[in-house]
Structures are given as C-alpha cells and as structure tokens.
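Students often ask why inverse folding is considered easier than folding. One informal answer: many sequences map to the same fold, so there is more than one right answer. In these notes we will look at a single instance of the problem. The structure comes first.
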C-alpha cells in the first residue's frame, strides 16, 4: 500500500490538530477524513473502509480513565477494521503508547511532531500493512537506534529502544533513571545522535561531583576577576551546549541550593555568568540522569518537586542487568569480541559451563561489572576457550556477598518455597508460573535446576 492510494481517518478532539493533519495529507493521500468525536468511530467505519487510522490517546469524553487510547484501539479491532493504527500521544503518555503497540497498534507519533517525520511514519505503517510484525521487535545485531554500544534483545530493552526512537527527534527534556553501570550515559548519547541537534554540541557534566563553589562557575561560566582564581573569562557548560544537548549526570546528588540555581536557568532559558549582570539566552535540549529511584526524588526534603517536573517531560527507566537475563550472553559475547581484538586474542569463545556461570550471577555492578569481568577474562585466558575459572567477578561485590551469606541462604529458601507454591498453584504450568513470578521461562527453568526442583 502506498500513501497516494490510501484512505486515512484522523480521530482527535483538537480541531487544530485535525486541520493541520488534513492540510498536510491533502496532497499526499487519496482521501483524508477527520473526526472530532471518537463515539462516532463505529459510524465512520461502517460507511467505508480505511487503510490507516490516526488515533489520539486522550479525549475529553465520558471514558475518563486515562486509557482512552487503549479503549478505542480495542473498539477498532472489535469493529473488524483492518486499518493500520498510529496512536497520537503527548510526552507524558509514551509508556501507554508502547502498551498500545502490544495491543495491536502499528506505531505512534509524539506531538508536536515534525511533518516529515509524520509522513515517514505513515508510509512505514502502510508498508507494513499485511505483514504483521511487532512494532517493538528489533534485531539485536542490527544497527538500531541505540547504535552498537548499548545492546539488548530482551523485551524491556526493545521497548527502551523504541521509546528513544520516538523521543529523540523532539525537544522534550528527558530524565533517565537506573542503577550505576546500566548504561544511562549511552542512552543519553543515543538520544542526541538521533535528534535534530545531532550536528550541534553534546556536553556531558557530572553535576554530582561539582562542589558548591564550582557549580555555578562550571555550569554558567564566569568573568575574569569574578573570584580569586578567575584569571580569564570562561564559558559555562550551558553556553558550550548552545543549540545542542546538555547531559547532566547524577542530578540527584546536587543540593537544594544548587537545584534552585538550576531551576531558575531552566525557567528563564538564560544564564548569567558569575561577575556580570548580563543574562545570556540559551537554547539547549536537556537530558538528566540519576541512580536514585523516583520515590527518593519525590521527597521534597531532598529534591525540589518543581525541578522534577521541569526536567522530567519523559522518563526512561533502565533496568538492572539481573532483570535482563536474555541480554547477558549477548553482551558477554560482544565484550569478548571487543577485547579479543584489543588484546590480539581473536576467536575466543565461551564453553557451556562458563555461560552457565555468567547466567547464574546477579551482577550488582550491572553491565559495567560484566564488561570488566569479560575484559579480565580475555586478558588472563591462555587458551581459545573461556572457561569458568577465567570468569572472576568483582572482588568488592564478592566480599559484600560473603559478608551477607547467612541472609542470602535465607533468601534462597524463601525463593525456593515461593517457586514451589506458584508452580503448585498453576498445576505445574511453567508458562503461567513464570509470568506470575515475573520471570522468563528460561530463567524459571534455571532456578528449578538450581534448587533441584
């Protein structure tokens, strides 16, 4: 199906959106029908068949649940329409839009959108029509939106890749949450590389490491003589990132005083260098990251709520490696190839027991710990195969685990009993038991083997 032969239905309660889409597609598609009230959906679909439907996620209607998009998507399928469906969503509903993909939507667009991107999305949706394929299905070996540094074939990582693809071309402020070592900085860099600012500066600042005295000088700049060591004028990081992306890492570690300074700059979109009274306009895309959970950020004694709203237009939660078991071997082989080439030991492979050891570890240091473990193994290996003895996990983490061994033993007993209870509850159905436990079937089978169940 090509766009010029397509009949398109647009459903949105915003007249301006309907007008804009109709004018945009008027010369591109065969027919564009607009509808303000989703309650008329059945009537519209009974009159004619459509090749594609653009469906808003939220309406000011009687179905005031926040899930209108899911509801009307199900109705489209209930009415036996075979149209491809593209959801129209605001920044705050991206997670819900990803759920819509699982429920049968073809794609989604984030408003406000760029016209060229919308047309491309529509063409791709029409091109996929008749060839069912999960919208969040990516090849782990492909040069995806994330690039070649941050890999993942697990479902949770595929969703992150898809979310990044959608938000990168926008100017939405992004907050990336996740434990240390999960790859938050790689995601930030990928967002910049696939944004409309990709040919402009990308400036990273570890704000958590800045002292009170250096915070303003580093971020906002200073004039010569502003303080004792100010021997020359200096451009701050905000100015250095002009027209590009500013990545503030460890944002959760700055003080309330520093937060107030940062909030003022973000609200006014201008900085004032230390030692001057002259404000300088700034135009940056802001990405922040922290290893603190949202619950701690919500504590107003620690973090200003108004700043959270300012930096968190869209949030991306990066899971720890222990919740990405499907990615462990993929990442291990990637790092093995990387360091085999670096240290001139090509062709190294893992034997089966080594892979079992990798899968059985809990990775408190996440992907970073796995990376250092594989690098150490490659350096120390003497043969062409990496064996379990070559895999030595972080001594620091091992020491912590040893100190906590009695507790771990109790936790293992609790885990074993829980698994037994859930399997019994589902009459031995492993698929249902794994779903209730929040595990993959493979992960559950490993635990069955571990506990000799």
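Output (designed amino acids):
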């Amino acid at each position: 199906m090509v766009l010029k032969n397509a009949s398109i239905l647009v459903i949105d309660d915003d007249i301006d959106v309907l007008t804009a889409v109709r004018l945009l597609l008027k010369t591109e598609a065969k027919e564009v029908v607009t509808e303000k009230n989703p309650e008329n959906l059945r009537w519209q679909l009974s009159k004619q068949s459509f090749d594609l439907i653009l469906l808003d996620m939220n309406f000011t209607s009687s179905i005031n649940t926040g899930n209108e998009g899911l509801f009307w998507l199900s109705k489209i399928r209930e009415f036996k329409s075979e149209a491809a469906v593209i959801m129209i969503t605001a920044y705050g509903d991206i997670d819900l839009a990803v759920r819509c993909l699982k429920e049968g939507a073809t794609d989604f667009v984030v408003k406000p959108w760029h016209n060229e991107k919308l047309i491309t999305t529509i063409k791709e949706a029409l091109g996929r029509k008749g060839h069912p394929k999960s919208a969040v299905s990516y090849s782990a070996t492909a040069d995806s939106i994330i690039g070649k540094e941050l890999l993942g074939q697990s479902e949770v990582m595929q969703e992150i890749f898809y979310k990044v693809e959608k938000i990168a071309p926008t100017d939405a402020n992004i907050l990336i949450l996740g434990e240390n070592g999960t790859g938050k900085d790689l995601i930030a860099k990928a967002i910049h590389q696939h944004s409309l600012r990709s040919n402009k500066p990308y400036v990273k600042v570890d704000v958590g490491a800045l002292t009170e005295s250096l915070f303003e000088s580093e971020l906002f700049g200073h004039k010569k003589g502003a303080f004792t060591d100010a021997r020359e004028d200096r451009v701050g990081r905000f100015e250095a990132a002009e027209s590009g992306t500013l990545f503030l890492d460890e944002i959760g570690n700055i003080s309330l005083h520093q937060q107030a300074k940062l909030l003022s700059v973000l609200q006014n979109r201008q900085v004032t260098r230390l030692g001057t009274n002259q404000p300088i306009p700034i135009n940056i895309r802001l990405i922040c990251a922290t290893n603190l959970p949202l619950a701690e950020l919500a504590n107003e004694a620690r973090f200003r709520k108004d700043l959270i709203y300012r930096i968190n237009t869209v949030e991306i939660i990066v899971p720890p490696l222990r919740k990405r078991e499907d990615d462990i071997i993929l990442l291990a082989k990637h790092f093995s190839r990387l360091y085999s080439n670096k240290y001139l030991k090509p062709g190294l492979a893992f034997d089966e027991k080594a892979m079992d050891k990798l899968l059985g570890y809990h990775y408190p240091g996440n992907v970073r710990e796995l990376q250092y473990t594989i690098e150490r193994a490659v350096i120390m290996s003497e043969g062409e195969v990496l064996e379990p003895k070559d895999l030595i996990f972080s001594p620091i983490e091992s020491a912590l685990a040893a100190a906590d061994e009695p507790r771990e033993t109790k936790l293992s007993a609790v885990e074993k009993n829980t698994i037994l209870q859930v399997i019994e509850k589902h009459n031995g159905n492993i698929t249902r038991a794994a779903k209730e436990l929040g595990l993959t079937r493979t992960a559950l089978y490993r635990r069955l083997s571990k506990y000799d169940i």
